[in-house]
Amino acid sequence: MRRRAQFQAVLSAAALVHTAHFALHGIATGGRVGARGVPLFPGDGAWLGAVIPKRWARRAVTRNALKRQIYAAEREHPLPPGAWVVRLKRPFPTTEFPSATSAALRHAARLELRELLGARLRQRLAAGAPPCTVATA
After folding, report:
1. Are 114 and 78 in contact (CB under 8 A)?
2. What is the pLDDT of residues 102-126, one digit of tens each?
């Protein structure tokens, strides 16, 4: 995802699953149009975006490292069709992870993202909460 309207549409829905540091928002993409009548999500498949606020990750190197981990975790656990946004909702403590590029931070983020995009999402979707029933936009 690249456009602000796309992120706003997805983030307007409640988060489907949470972990200690991340939240996953998702909506169905069919029939969503932007301000000029152009489809927000053309085509089929999964759309993925990442939101890493400066409030929770001050340094750009940290934000970029976390985004790389999000996209790598999605390649391991492909998402079902729809629009998805992974949002950092709490900072990783700098006392435990002083370096933004430390292997410890990458490992901790990757484990949490695997849980978020793998087991927790599958459980939530199996319980009958597909993105299309949660979306309101």
Report:
1. no
2. 999 999 999 999 999 999 999 999 8
